[in-house]
Design brief:
mainly alpha
Length: 347
């Protein structure tokens, strides 16, 4: 890891501060950027995410992808955590905090909307950012692609029924434009670009892929920091105007993130997954497909609703929390040293 990447947490912290500061100083610029969206997918953020995940897409070896099916345990762990555990623990935590622990400070209507927003986050596993987290823990790029792809396929069929059940409503309409466009922008197009780039580099020399990815890695981090600046700039006014509400919403979201991470980590250990498979599996369940959650919250409850605010807080909380989980995994590589198995690379 280069010197620039070693101080990633510092750069992200500065990005958060810069985003809030710029959002207060030049709100018009961020309003203009926020308006550059299609089907609730912000095109500027999409470009920055592209910059983040493109280097990892180049590392995907299609000859190795077909072998993922021979190692199904990591995929099973991901699916169990994302679809049989995470949505329901998020609902329980939302009720616990906003109907009991925070009840004296929150009116019942707002509390129910905050819970709804958290549930929508819990039912939407990550699509794009997980490629970044996987890269930071030196995850198996081929396995991560399969994990994300299978989750996206299941989301098409499971998102609406699970969300409807937990929210107690029956008229949830999945914003297919958001779901399809996000998948195309964040997975399909960068994957095609990565495949084409890899093919061209492999024809040049055996070392060309590694050299090119090495040169691109700093730009991947720049894309992450730029994304942080934009996201916090969008919400600067809300952060300053409602700090207590945001803090209260953030508490159960943070508890959920670390709790799901712990469950996935224990599961990975019990299944004796290698680190490069266990790392992404633990991280997929703790990050969220925030574009989808925000779009559904707005369509169901309105732009100014507590549900929409809760999904936005999920966006703000995610990057700092995920960076801390990446650090925990990188420091805990020895947890995956099983008897008779070689130690994972990257010591």
């Amino acid at each position: 890891m280069g010197r620039f990447e070693r101080y990633l947490s510092l750069w992200v912290a500065l990005g958060i501060a810069a985003g809030v500061g710029l959002g207060l100083l030049v709100p018009g610029a961020f309003h203009f950027i926020a308006g550059l969206e299609l089907a609730h997918v912000n095109l500027v953020v999409a470009v920055f995410i592209w910059v983040m995940i493109y280097p990892m897409m180049i590392q995907i070896d299609w000859h190795a992808v077909k072998d993922v099916g021979r190692k199904p345990r990591g995929l099973i762990l991901t699916l169990v955590v994302n679809w049989l555990i995470k949505p329901f623990t998020m609902a329980v935590l939302g009720v616990l905090f906003f109907q009991y622990l925070f009840a004296p400070w929150v009116d019942p209507q707002s509390a129910s909307e905050y819970i709804a927003g958290m549930i929508l986050l819990g039912v939407a596993p990550c699509t794009a950012m997980v490629f970044v987290w996987s890269q930071l823990v030196k995850g198996d790029a081929n396995y991560t692609l399969v994990q994300v792809s299978v989750n996206d396929l299941i989301m098409v069929f499971a998102f609406a029924p699970i969300a409807a059940f937990l929210l107690g409503v029956t008229d949830i309409t999945v914003p297919w434009e958001t779901l399809v466009l996000s998948t195309v922008l964040y997975v399909v197009l960068p994957l095609i670009a990565g495949m084409a780039t890899r093919h061209a580099l492999e024809r040049r020399s055996p070392r060309a892929v590694g050299d090119f990815v090495g040169r691109l890695k700093p730009w991947s981090i720049v894309g992450l920091i730029a994304t942080v600046v934009v996201l916090f700039g969008f919400q600067a006014g809300t952060i300053i105007a409602q700090p207590l509400v945001i803090a209260m919403i953030a508490v159960p979201l943070i508890v959920q993130s670390y709790g799901i991470f712990a469950v996935a980590l224990i599961g990975a250990r019990l299944l004796k997954l290698p680190f490069d498979v266990a790392g992404p599996a633990c991280l997929i369940g703790t990050s969220n497909f925030f574009e989808l959650a925000v779009a559904v919250a707005i369509s169901l409850f309105g732009l100014e609703s507590g549900a929409a605010l809760a999904t936005v807080v999920g966006v703000l909380v995610e990057v700092p929390v995920m960076l801390s989980l990446v650090a925990i995994l990188n420091r805990g590589r020895h947890w995956f040293d099983y008897p008779g198995r070689p130690r994972p690379a990257g010591r």
